[in-house]
TrEMBL record:
Catalytic activity: a uridine in RNA = a pseudouridine in RNA
Tagged with keyword Isomerase: yes
One Pfam family here: PseudoU_synth_2
SMART domains: S4 (SM00363)
InterPro entries the UniProt entry points to: PsdUridine_synth_cat_dom_sf, PsdUridine_synth_RluC/D, PsdUridine_synth_RsuA/RluA, RluA_PseudoU_synthase, S4_RNA-bd, S4_RNA-bd_sf
Annotated RNA-binding S4 domain residues: 15-73
Top-level taxon: Bacteria
The species this protein was found in: Anaeromyxobacter dehalogenans (strain ATCC BAA-258 / DSM 21875 / 2CP-1)
Name of this chain's protein: Pseudouridine synthase
Gene Ontology MF term list: RNA binding; rRNA pseudouridine synthase activity
Family, per entry: Belongs to the pseudouridine synthase RluA family.
Active site: 131
Its biological purpose: Responsible for synthesis of pseudouridine from uracil.
Length: 301
């Protein structure tokens, strides 16, 4: 991502924002307009999507541009088959890999809350987040009270989450519980590292199947730290396939990983209104199953 930070001078009073960005940012007006339309432009910290908006001196304009100047294609709609459950208080969906869980700095298009809201015809509230490349079960609140109850449940670690991970090798030991605190990696913005001074984090795991080329691992995080499963399994010598940021190979022999091979397969939590036990499950998608079959063989039936 490329970022431009521009301060509006007196000379540009009442200038259109698209013209201002082009002139002061040294980019084409077409690129400036595309950045605005995509949602990558902020004026004094608020997203601006109106190319004809006029500016006043002293305002700060921040322009976030995707590499190459164009954002990745966004998913236009979420199919009905992705809806796992819905009632008046919450809904659960099977998130496709590659869809952001929330708007990014470069765009607000195609984020999961927008897609789910369109599917249901009513707004929803995100209460927990999966990484962009992670597929699987995600829940949303449909009322303010439900959002508060679900947020508190996730804050206290009440939900039981189960993930499937395809790793470059089996963790050592093959089954157990890893409790390593995690903190921000100062050398790599946005990433995490094992840090004794960081936030407590624990993950239970077990190796389901393994072969010379890799392993299928079940992971059950007890806490919800950013990139927790990825960092913990890497620390056990079992980085996820496709996860180059944490040491995972993109290819094992003839097997190529199209993404970070992590899938949220099951989520159990109390209903935010009734307290009833709710269980949502999603089978791994085709790309995950294809790599799994090539790496460790098809699942046993």
């Amino acid at each position: 991502m490329r970022r431009l930070t521009l301060l509006v001078p007196d000379a540009d009073r009442y200038e259109r924002i698209d013209r201002f960005i082009a002139a002061r940012g040294g980019i084409s007006r077409g690129l400036a307009r595309r950045a605005i339309e995509a949602g990558g432009v902020f004026v004094d910290g608020r997203r601006c999507k109106v190319a004809g908006r006029t500016l006043t001196p002293g305002q700060q304009v921040v322009v976030n541009l995707e590499e190459g100047g164009r954002a990745a294609p966004a998913l236009a709609a979420l199919g009905r088959e992705r809806l796992l459950y819905a009632d008046a208080d919450l809904c659960a969906v099977d998130k496709p890999a590659g869809v952001p869980a929330q708007p990014t700095l470069t765009t607000d298009r195609g984020a999961l809350p927008e897609l789910v809201s369109a599917l249901l015809g009513a707004p929803v509230t995100l209460v927990h987040r999966l990484d962009r490349e992670t597929s699987g079960v995600t829940v949303f609140a449909r009322t303010r009270d439900a959002a508060a109850a679900l947020a508190e449940a996730f804050r206290t670690g009440t939900p039981e989450k189960t993930y499937l991970a395809l790793c470059a090798r089996a963790p050592s030991p093959a089954e157990g519980r890893v409790a390593l605190a995690l903190g921000k990696d100062p050398a790599r913005p946005g990433l995490r590292r094992v840090d004794p001074a960081g936030d407590p984090a624990a993950t239970r795991y077990r190796t389901l199947r393994e072969a010379p080329g890799g392993a299928l691992v079940e992971a059950r995080p007890e806490t919800g730290r950013t990139h927790q499963i990825r960092v913990h399994l890497a620390a056990l010598g079992a980085p996820l396939l496709g996860d180059a940021r944490y040491g995972g190979p993109r290819r094992v022999g003839e097997v190529a990983a199209p993404r970070v091979m992590l899938h949220a397969t099951r989520l159990e939590l109390p209903h935010p209104a009734t307290g009833a036990r709710m269980v949502f499950e999603a089978e791994p998608p085709e790309d995950f199953r294809a790599v799994e079959a090539a790496l460790v063989g098809p699942p046993e039936r």
